[in-house]
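Exercise 7.
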Amino acid sequence: MNRKYVMDESPGYQLFQASRVMNAKLNENFKKIGHTLTYEQWQIMSRLYGKEGQTQRMIAVSIERDEAGTSRLLGRMEKAGYIYRYVNPEDKRRNYIYPTEWARQEEEKLNRTALDTIDEACVGMTEEEKRSGQLFLEKIRNNLGSS
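Solution. The predicted structure, written as tokens, is:
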């Protein structure tokens, strides 16, 4: 076997680098519209916009992070005014997470910024190339056990 590992040709390395620069660009674009939201926090907001009132545990599972890390993210988001936690009066350990009224009003602007960032990343790609790339990434995740 004459195969040799070449870092720059590794799908894992390329995925990591593409993710890193795309996340940085999204963070930058959020700042341009006056938001302190980070990519990690946007993962939470985009899920809350789709389904409000999720528990911290549900959010942690959906963004594939541990509960402690998710709790820290939520704490920063709460301080910044993006979310609030509703404590279940019957089980004080269970919090339900909701976007604040202000964050609801900002949903369209944040969503547009995220979509514009994707468009910026995909300049020069056909719809077929984008779909092929999505299928490629999906297969990698499925092959390695994460959905």
